Amino acid sequence: xxxxxxxxxxxxxxxxxxxxxxxxxxxxxxKDCPVCRLKAERIEGIVAALDRLPSMAAPAGxxxxxxxxxxxxxxxxxxxxxxxxxxxxxxxxxxxxTLAGLLFGAVLGTxxxxxxxxxxxxxxxxxxxxxxxxx
Length: 135
Description:
Layout: H1 3-15, H2 20-32, H3 34-52, H4 62-74, H5 79-84, H6 88-115, H7 123-130
């Protein structure tokens, strides 16, 4: 393993989260590489300092507040509520834009189909040829 690969995995190695094979390779690398070994020692020092800190209890109302916030997030309006919240003019505009897009697609598809009827080329080649562009 290269040093940059080792350094990416040092946190997991210190926490004992790696498979035995990967952990053994990192341990062997650390015996030979002083730079990576120093980084591992620093991480171990930080973990040890954090472990020495006294444990803290969560505030009394935290679980209730967390559950309330989660439920509020689950009750976000869906598509039906969004649609009902629109004015009649906004609903009409959305329907009109959708219809225009469908019609445009139908006309474009029909024009590609009719152009391709007289030749063996694909529709894109016919489109380029009609514009004088050679692919």
